[in-house]
Amino acid sequence: MHLSIVRCLLVLSTFVASGVVRAGDAADADAAARGFHLLTEKPFLTSDFSQKVFDHVWMAWPKPLRREAEKASPEQRRQMAFDRYGLTTRPGDDSGKPLQYVVDAEGNWTMNCFACHGGSVYGTPTPGAPNARFALQTLTEEIRATKFRLGEPLSRMDVGAMVIPLGTTHGTTNAVVFGQGLMKQRDENLNLITSPPESFVNHDMDAPPWWYFYKRPYIYIDGFAPKGHRALMQFMLIPENGPEFFREHEDEFRDVYAYLSSLRPPKYEGIVDAELAASGRKIFETSCAQCHGTYAASANYPNRRVPLDEIGTDPVRLNALEIEGRRKYSRSWFAHAGEPGEQQTIVNPSGYVAPPLDGIWASAPYLHNGSVPTLWHLLNPQRRPTVWRRIGEEIDDERIGFQIEVAEKIPLTEPDVAVRRGYFDTRRFGKSNAGHDYPDALNDAEKRAVLEYLKTL
Questions:
Q1: pTM for the model
Q2: What b/e string do you get for 373-412 counting C-beta neighbours within 10 Å, with b at 16 or more?
Q3: Across 100-121, average pLDDT
Q4: Radius of gyration (Cα) for the chain, nearest Å?
């Protein structure tokens, strides 16, 4: 067996032991290992930048940080860059490579799916967790400035980011618009076509954890697209990848599908009041399970789409995808993967799908746009902060979620754009924290019990 596959199996065995990856049969485990290897070692897109550029990106930082980096060792500067851009190392891998990028033997860095779906769970790098620190817009701007300084050619990402925002708040992504724009340039058989310029509604999203994948028959927050290995390939629709590329690599994405299907959430390792959690479970199953399902021995996930006028959360994401675009997807190669029990594309969804809550403690922030920093705030709608930012890696053990500070507004005079993008302003377009007011039917004691129960999922 190839050494890199062996290493992937060792990494996956660590995940199995920690409860993150399901222990299935040997064939499942081999396919999952191959899928992880493909995501971390095989570039399916053109390169974003070189090792040389990344090693010099600190020279584009604001002066105080640049002075600090200048005095640091190369290893310390690298860690500073990882911290600034929301990159992590790979669990069980001492190569120093980031989880979020493929780095080939020539030192070319190419973004992979873990950029959004491989984050840190309160300081522990965890494949499949939302990357709540990813600073793609800031990284791209500073990589572009570094390339200008070094005389290096610009990538598609460098140029595109000047037109389409990549995320206005760190940890969120405008990826849905990328998918729309890429599909606009293809016919239903994925052939490149000439299409007139089109204006899309830019909106930031919070990436969902991949450990929901095994339960959900559809993907995306509105649940419009049937789950399948082909659906995982949409974001490779760059012009360099013609229609034959997707057919040639389809089997590889069956392995990626197997990897995603194997993922399970990490277990909460803090203190749980068992008696209070048991009380919370009863309240949850009466008040919340209709949408979010039941767990443990009685596990059942209803996959319920909640109408927008009922859920009341930010409508921008739902309305941004036009019906014709969804219809085009429904006729495309992506929507017909031949999976057992294949579902039909939903071309006109009425709302958002309530997700499973497995590992909910580990997937802050909350709501589909990432506007709510803790589970306590989710359960107390009237006390959600208007403007907030995360101030540490550690979990807030009382409220379960991010440690935050509240502000009146984003400090626009702050010279470091990375600091400004660390703030979440719920008054901005697509970032509302309104809705999901169901917890208002509970009293404070009941909310406390439900919060305790959510730690156990």
A1: 0.93
A2: bbbbbbbbbeebbebbbbeeeebbeebbbbbbeeeeebee
A3: 97
A4: 22
